[in-house]
Amino acid sequence: xxxxxxxxxxxxxxxxxxxxxxxxxxxxxxxxxxxxxxxxxxxxxxxxxxxxxxxxxxxxxxxxxxxxxxxxxxxxxxxxxxxxxxxxxxxxxxxxxxxxx
Length: 101
Ligand SMILES: [Zn+2]
Hints:
Elements: E1 4-12, E2 18-25, E3 31-35, E4 41-43, H1 49-61, H2 70-98
Antiparallel strand pairs: 1-2, 2-3, 3-4
Bound molecules: zinc ion.
């Protein structure tokens, strides 16, 4: 289990699903990579963190990430948030419309 998450590594599958691996500190300040979508965890001893995360996302989930583009992941998450908010608003309107019978 991760306690202090410091980084996120994301990769996107062909259908647009975003997968994420968190990087941070586990028990006794061990540095760990942990997948948010399965039980995969790996202790990091020396370097290659980003590659190990992306390797896992590619092999286990078929998602491809770009190791050099961190800002892109944030922008993508922002788009996802906007979509989620739009969806919520339309859901509320739909609920409001159908509950007025
Ligand atoms: Zn995984």
